[in-house]
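note to self: the first set is below, dont mix up w the second
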Amino acid sequence: MMRFGLTLALALAGGALFSAIGSPLPWLLGPMALAFAGSRLPKGRGFKPRWPSALRDAAMIAIGYSIGLTFTMDTLVEMGRQLPTMILMTALLLLFSALIAWTVAKLAGLPLPTVLMGSIPGGLSQMILLAEDTKGVDLTVVTFLQVTRLMMIIFFVPLLVFSPLFVSSFGAESAAAGTANAVNAADTAIAAGGDSAAMAAGTAGASGWAGWAGWAGWANWGDWGDWGGLFPAILLFAVVCTGVAVLLKRIKFPSAYLLGPMIVTAALHLSGVHGPSLPAGVLDASQLSIGTYVGLLLRPEGLKNKVRIATLAVLSGAVLLAGSFGLCLLLTRLHPISPSTAFLSLAPGGMDQMGIIAKEIHADVAIVSCYQLFRTWFIFFAVPPLLRLLFRRLLPKGSVRREATE
């Protein structure tokens, strides 16, 4: 309990610090940074950070519910129209990742299967499971490459989206998209009969920017919204979302605690059962929980040639981000969506983190989630069989055990 309390204090300090310096997503990035720094302290100092996975799961349920509320019939129609593009963009991103993996394997002197599984974007848990089941693959390197990429995405995607270069190039369109999303959210809330929810959605654009500056992050913790407006509707969604998440986890569904609540909330929302928007403090707490958990994942002490592998991991993550940006430009030419929405849709990170960022900058959360969801499912169902087929050619016979199921 003491370790958890100290870790929580460290995470809160990280959120406050990053709020004070005006960082994007301070309650995600701050806890992640300080949790990682705390985990690197010498063991003799008597402090080993601990963060229960149950808190991360609860945060995922909250984020999944919040994303599910953004789905509309218009979004589903647009998803169907963009399905061929989703397939194309996913294939291009994975091919680009494979090219990066081949280059890193050559430069680092590592086996290609190890680097390839460490380079698949958005497939952290799935690739680790496959690596555990494949002889000849270094699980430590796979985990390090995946977590390094994830942490880079979480840190640099918000900074890039808010950078002067990105804003100057696409700021007008992004701003227009953000305004439209806020208005649509307000209209949806009004249709549901929730005046306070409509006001919160309609004013999200202003409060989002205010949250970046100074100590506004602390203000958000106190701005819990109209808690009375959550009940009793939130009780139904809480029970259903949690139940579906637990059930899907038992059948080893990918990202069960995120996708389960998102899918069931979207289904209820589209059927006319409207859920209340979560207060800003709940979303901030969810970001803190996810950020702290991710910050404790990276453990480079088990690596050989730490400096070389770490350098190549960072460089490959940067190249992958650049490739995603190039695909973003292509996507904006194919469909009338804002560059911020396109970039977050293709960013090689997790859907929960990209959903949080999309919500904060008022991008089209539903479109971002759909592209990320499609890639998640493609990685879960299609990539492992393809990798097994490839590894049978690259690795000695018997290295890949066919009886494994992810």
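second set (the one i keep forgetting abt)
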Amino acid sequence: MRKFCLFLTLQLLIISVFGQVTVRNLLTENRANPIGLDVATPRLSWQLVPTVATKRNVKQVAYEIRVGTDAASAAKGTVWQSGRVASDQSVQVPYAGTALRPGQRYTWQVRVWDSPSGKPSDWSAPAFWQTGLLAAANWTAKWIEAGYAEDTINQPSPMFRKAFSAPKPIRSATLYMTAHGLYEARINGQRVGDAYLTPGWTTYNSHLQYQVYDVTGLLKTGPNAIGVTLGSGWYRGRLAWEKQRNIYGKNLALLGQLQLTYADGSTETVITDASWKSSTGPIRSSEIYDGEVYDARLEKAGWDKPGYADADWSGVTTKAFGYANLVANYNELITKHDRVKPVKVLTTPKGETVLDFGQNVVGWVALTPTGKAGDKIVLSHVEMLDKFGNPYVENLRTAKAQATYLLKGGRETLEPHFTFFGFRYVRVEGLTGPVNPADFTAIVLYSDMPKTGEFTTSNKLVNQLQSNIQWGQRGNFLDVPTDCPQRDERLGWTGDAEVFSRTAAYNFGVNNFFAKWLKDVAFEQAPNGAVPFVIPDVLKEQGPFAREPAGAAGWSDASIIIPWNMYVAYGDRRLLEQQYPSMKAYEGYMEKVAKNDLWSEGFQFGDWLSYVDTEGSPAFEARSAFTDTHLVAQCFYAYSTELMRKAATLLGKTEDAAHYTALLSRIKTAFQQAYMTPSGRLISDTQTAYVLALQFDMLPESLRPQAVTRLVQNVKKYKNHLTTGFLGTPFLCPVLTRFGQNDVAYDLLLQETYPSWLYPVKMGATTIWERWDSMKPDSTFQSPSMTSFNHYAYGAVGDWMYRTIAGIDTDESGPGYKQIIIKPQPGGGLTSANASLQTYYGTVRSDWKKEAGKLAMTVEVPANTTATVYVPAASADAVQEGGKSLSAAGLTVAGTESGYVRLRIGSGMYQFTVAH
């Protein structure tokens, strides 16, 4: 009897364990344990993890959240206890407790009830968030500027310091800081935080972010000191063209507030005010485009520590700039990532020494030289070597892209502070003796977005293409989505961001990155609803784009397309709600400029950088592939209107939805009357024209088959080469796949000669190029006025690679991968593909392989989601899962279609095999 009771107890324990889940990966506003949130109602997310890896069909049926102010447990100092809530929502659940207090750390935990067990999980490990100052009234610090007469030519970086005493043991300390310009803060000789180029780049006058740091570990009882260095950065440095400077202001300024809480519960605040001191130091000049000049002989040892003699420092001046535009940092900050060592030390035909890092990266080089005081070392950064092997600098245009160091003598460790470079090669000048590659390390900088996507195939060139796409995203996602990171531009072009946004959401977690940037899209929007071509807008009064506020199709549409893409990719409804007024305003702008629903006037970029034969002799039967710019505009007018209809419907704006539904019909009719013959031929016989018309359903359904035929014929006319530009390229392969021409899509993807995706790969590219032939087959270059070798727009094909080759997608009715679609479409001679995506729910995986006459397919579906899986098979009888028939494996066939067996499955890992 005793043995039986023990056996029964063990069985019940096993059943209990097998029936429960653990709760992990808690996020607040999509970030883990964020410090400094100015969000009154933060959203909470978590993941369910089955206690047994093989457990399937796990779903949440209810949750309970508790939030408290005790660091150890949310059960103490409770400010919200949700109680048991019957819901399967585990992503972006809004906080619903008492009003949040500024500068308060909140601890939270969650437990869930799952199906099929119906049992509650244990409470999760505690997570936390800490609020920012929440309101302008909570700032007591003063804006300060340097008190000395500035060198207005070189503009050395100002340094500020403040000594103070903490008379009692410190329980906690929080620093709030921002600047006009860029800043680096230090306390008692140690750097504050791991972020660089703070406070980042925004429309400063309307939207300036401040950062919040837990600096408890940097302070001590007794004397302390804060030191801060500023750089010109985007605030007053040279931006865009025509040597434009001081866009946001002429003087750099600092704002800082240090909140101390002592062990006895008392508090004290140290602020920037008239008591601070200012001076200059080793950073003699610093610019985004031109680089930095650093004179180590002018370092002020101990300036950021207590006890430093600062009697010869100047005072500061206080300024009444106010706090109305301040908001706590929402997106991930720029941090250091990969560290890349040189793969070669080259001697050029000119006798110069060049380091080859083997990868086009964005950031800077840290070096540890040895030399005499006054020795001058210059590092010049370039992306390419010319056909003779010399550094190619012409495509930098007027950007110097140099780091210059004057040594203090001995062995030193040096790196820049307030600049960045796009480079693979670095010319080294000024070193005594041979260059030791071990003394140089390329430090890669980009916004600290979590990497979410992995994608590989049996084709090494395609894998390199994927690597190039991801490296291009790293290099151009530095707080804003820039076009390129090397020349005198580096601007937030809306068109580039728009076409790439969905691909971006596969590779990295960009929800917060785009949410922050979209705030500036709204801030920069003109009163008539027009959206500028770059955000932040620094082209208002200069160059070829100085004009009355106007929008451009495919560029300004970023204000509508990106919010929708973020909703689909992350289920971020709040972002859509916040951006809806901006979206509606731009849609209204298009309605105003369109005459009789036809957008046929005004400037347009059109299908930017599509194929054009500039050599005087055609590479193919046709000489160019120019698409009428207003045909393109009309298609994007329809695209944005369709998304407005969807957004309005989702948000319950029924009148708007009805308006956009009727408008969309008229837009398509106007397109057909203006750009299409009765037989369906378009006035521009180009790939882009037919791709856009098919993608956005601009043609009557009866005329779509002939349009597909014309598109395929055009591809064949160019001998299986693409000819599309920035706006046509993202939809080229998806349209071919959608209309049954997947083999043609694969032919284009795998084409190795110009123009194609793999041509740059074959030419040694490690990032995506701006032009299909930025480097020509003879190793000469396209026009240096616009030839970037790190320009991610054409990498938008990555979206199709994830969605079609691997087959990972999300159903719009269950966005953010709550309802998953897995539909791989093998082709092109590929024998395998493996992709995974880290979603808010967990890992989605699709892995297929052909061998020995069989197709093996592995699918992973995270807990609390469902998936529709399409297995490539002629019939259900040909499919097994885990070595069993589908029925024996407990799976129900939902249908068959076009060579696929369709299944509806819950969470878990599945192993399908198909006999061919």
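remember for set 2: The mean pLDDT is 95.
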